Amino acid sequence: xxxxxxxxxxxxxxxxxxxxxxxxxxxxxxxxxxxxxxxxxxxxxxxxxxxxxxxxxxxxxxxxxxxxxxxxxxxxxxxxxxxxxxxxxxxxxxxxxxxxxxxxxxxxxxxxxxxxxxxxxxxxxxxxxxxxxxxxxxxxxxxxxxxxxxxxxxxxxxxxxxxxxxxxxxxxxxxxxxxxxxxxxxxxxxxxxxxxxxxxxxxxxxxxxxxxxxxxxxxxxxxxxxxxxxxxxxxxxxxxxxxxxxxxxxxxxxxxxxxxxxxxxxxxxxxxxxxxxxxxxxxxxxxxxxxxxxxxxxxxxxxxxxxxxx
Length: 310
Fold this sequence. Notes:
This protein is mainly alpha-helical. 65% of the residues lie in helices and 10% in strands.
């Protein structure tokens, strides 16, 4: 079972604390300096705090070993968490759009250099967090950290858009440029659509795993080549591979020469399983069923035999 390491949990805690601090800074500065974009970005960060808590909880749950009620373990807890984060991002994007559209028709507020500074600091902070979390997600094969990294990436867009909008508004106030104040809400609408796109992508990926869809064809072809690298494997009748949390489960039906003994067949399947798990560290389980192969005999499909149709 691919358990989450303590280092992965540490990264999740770093994201949680950072999101909490950024939420306080953005909302406080947004309210103090009357910045709609900064307040909306702060509320978005508040959703990130909830998402980080969900990620940590799912990572701890996925570490629980298999039991009678969950014989395949708790690996899908991370996919449930990813779907939950996607829902939060969709809600945050909807709120950002509503706030931005409302501010288009609201009173004009002067842009403060302090609000602009807060947006710039948030953008830099989130960029560092994204690189750190993304590297950890790849290193530890963690879907929760990958979802959190995607969340950080969405935050970078949101904070940068807020910074651009505030910059244009601040410059427009100094240079007396007409309608420059509209740049803040317009930028908010654009970034909200980007956040919505990321959220929908995350929802689709996590839902596919929860529905036990197959891994992509490229990976399946790689698995197939491992089987066929053994000369005793004459053909592959069935090869299925699906994601289970951070791991891959494979089941296959292969044909070996009928002249082989049960022990020889077992030795071959164990060798295949060992090579597969060595070549692909995320493969947790390989179930192999053996069918007999006879030289020169055509393989009869079960559906073509009347008394086997069931």
